[in-house]
Specification:
Blueprint (H helix, E strand, L loop, with lengths): L10 H17 L31 E6 L5 E3 L2 E3 L4 H10 L10 E6 L3 E6 L2 E6 L5 H27 L8 H10 L4 E3 L10
Parallel strand pairs: 1-6, 6-7
Antiparallel strand pairs: 1-2, 2-3, 4-5
Length: about 190
């Protein structure tokens, strides 16, 4: 006569697996600070179209094509030169007539300061790689970060991130983040 094998009760095994799953879900932390920190402009109060008249000299156009090549201000450029070009555009150190005009504003902690009226217009092709998009974004933001850190260090003796909220707002008024992103277009077919 054949010997019978006893069956193992699997119901408690399912309970244990479920408890382990709950434990890992509860104890796992997720990084939610990833992505780009951007605030969209508020919607207009009424249905009228809002148009702003911006002089051509106040706009730095940055185009990225489907081959991940840059065209900055109408000239082909390597991404390694973007930060320097953006810095020159924002600061306009020699008050060139081809670079953005400046407006004197009275800013708390600084007094009368010349603030650039420049806007960086960024446009990508739909075939632009996400990696290149992020590289260009990082270079543009890094330029503003560098300028804000330099101003904070010379004025307050500490980096921008170490300033209190009011001091940071004052520095932001001197170097306002003005990056306009246009909707991606399909130019020249697919990548």
């Amino acid at each position: 006569m054949a010997r019978s094998t006893p069956e193992i009760n699997g119901s408690s095994l399912a309970d244990i697996a479920f408890l382990l799953l709950i434990f890992f879900l509860v104890t796992t932390t997720m990084n939610v600070d990833t992505g780009l920190q951007r605030l969209l402009p508020p919607m207009p109060e009424d249905d009228t179209q809002v148009e702003q008249d911006v002089k051509q000299r106040n706009i730095l156009t940055v185009l990225v094509n489907k081959s991940d090549r840059l065209l900055v201000g109408g000239e082909p450029m390597d991404v390694t030169m973007l930060r320097e070009k953006t810095r020159e555009f924002i600061t306009n150190p020699n008050n060139d007539l081809d670079l953005p005009e400046k407006q004197v504003e009275n800013i708390e902690y600084f007094g009368p300061m010349e603030v650039s009226r420049g806007v960086i217009s960024l446009q990508n092709d739909r075939g632009t790689s996400y990696k290149m998009y992020m590289i260009v974004q990082n270079e543009l933001i890094a330029t503003y970060d560098e300028l804000r850190n330099e101003l904070s260090t010379t004025r307050f003796g500490k980096k921008y991130g170490d300033l209190n909220e009011d001091e940071q707002k004052a520095v932001q008024k001197v170097y306002p983040l003005r990056i306009s992103e246009a909707e991606p277009k399909s130019i020249g077919g697919r990548k």
